[in-house]
Amino acid sequence: MKNTNKTILLVEDNPSDIDLTKRAFEKEHINNNVVVAEDGQEALDYLFATGKYAGRDVNDLPVLVLLDLKLPKIDGLEVLRQIRANELTHRLLVIILTSSKEDQDLAISYDLGVNSYIRKPVDFHQFAEAIKLLGLYWLVINEPPPFNEIPNH
Fold first, then answer.
1. Which of 47, 48, 99, 141 has the fewest C-beta atoms under 10 angstroms from its C-beta?
2. What pLDDT band is residue 148 in, cutting at 50, 70 and 90?
3. For residue 99, what pLDDT is reported?
4. 26: Cβ contacts below 8 Å, ≥ 6 apart
């Protein structure tokens, strides 16, 4: 598909879903570097260059964040809330990729400014197709927002 040499941050605590997502990326030739954060705190540490990611260039943001909701330490909705509250990351493309079927999760995610909400298909072929479409749209077709520019209001 496209290798922009931009990182995708996958925030997922289930090893099977991590493997499934990586396999789907490979199958669909999405060659972006994938950084995995296995809990909400690790995701925030990566984005804001704190904790074990201290010293990372905080301006080197991922092109996309794939965010599960049910996470240890800090849940996905709080991660999204903190992403949107920070001037550096408020425009970051965030896609909820979850098995949650709760309408409340869907509504709150959009209220907090998620760019897209995808329920994980159980079948690998359906999941791979969803990843293919996700990659095609968000990594190729979509024009991402500028991150380091502060608009004059």
1. 141
2. low
3. 85
4. none
Task: State which H helix or E strand residue 96 sits in.
Answer: strand 94-98
Domain that holds residue 83: 8-141
Q: Is the pLDDT of residue 1 over 50?
A: no
The pLDDT assigned to 52 comes to 94
CATH label of the domain that carries residue 34: 3.40.50.2300
Residue 149 to residue 65: CA distance in whole angstroms = 20
* Residue 135 included in any domain: yes
> Contact, 56 vs 49, CB < 8 A?
yes
Scanning the chain, the segments in alpha helix (DSSP H) are 15-27, 40-48, 76-85, 103-111, 124-135
Give the three-class secondary structure for 42. Answer: helix
Let me know if residue 2 belongs to a domain.
Answer: no
Assigned domain for 3 exists:
no
Report the number of distinct structural domains present in the chain: 1
